[in-house]
Design goal:
Blueprint (H helix, E strand, L loop, with lengths): L1 H14 L4 E2 L11 E2 L15 E12 L5 E12 L5 E6 L10 E7 L4 E6 L4 E6 L19 E4 L5 E6 L2 E5 L7 E12 L2 E12 L10 E10 L4 E9 L3 E12 L14 E4 L5
Parallel strand pairs: 8-17
Antiparallel strand pairs: 1-2, 3-4, 3-16, 4-5, 5-6, 6-7, 7-8, 9-10, 10-11, 12-13, 13-14, 14-15, 15-16
Amino acid sequence: MKARILGILLVLGTAAFGQSVTLPGGDQNAPPIQVTPHIIPPGVQTGLPYSADQVTDHTQTLANGTRTTDKQVVLLWRDSLGRTRTERPVPGSNDSSGPTTIEIDDPIAGFHYVLDPSAKVVHRFPAHTGSPQPQLPAGLGTTPVGTVVDSSGRQIGEISAGIVLSPATPVAGPRATSQDLGTQVIEGVSAQGTRTVTTWPAGSRGNDQPMTDTSESWYSQELKSTVLSKSASARNGETVTKLTNIRRGEPDPNLFQLPRDYTVVDETGRR
């Protein structure tokens, strides 16, 4: 154990000088990690490695009373350096034996990778630095070019170059209240729970009657992760997401390294 901790500290120390390193225990034939001098960005969870299965169950009740269910299992890993790996079924396929999407977030190298096993391609994106604000071309969003009216002819908004600027009659927004649920042990870790009830007034979401959404979140300080979340609403049904089979300890370092036979493609658009 002491040797492993020493090895990780050695990696961090080497990173400060911008050298290429390989995490102790990794495949020595795999490409080394290209480490930049900034080491680890703020906000990255380090020193809290774990692996888990993230199970999401979604239930929807249709207008005729029919209940539909959907289940998805996502595999998660996080190492002591804050790198994460996620494996999930491709959209439209929940078969555990079917194709998967693999994502690796590497704050050490400063990249987010999306692996395509079928094509043996790695799509490489710069590390996420926040959602950019949309920019309008010069001259747009300044002069109204039309109005928006309801079925009775009453003006309810203005359009500038095809963009609705603001409603003439504001609609009341949602009201939310929160409740502390205390702590409980979930899958072997202690978690703090919070329940939030949000009420949407009539007309705020195209509804003719008030609607209520309820959500619960159980956050573990031990893992710095949410281990259980629940949500229920008339529009979206019920969703329960839970971490199961939680394993504490360092994952296999090879999980965070790119396969040698994959082609790396640098992407400039949004992922």
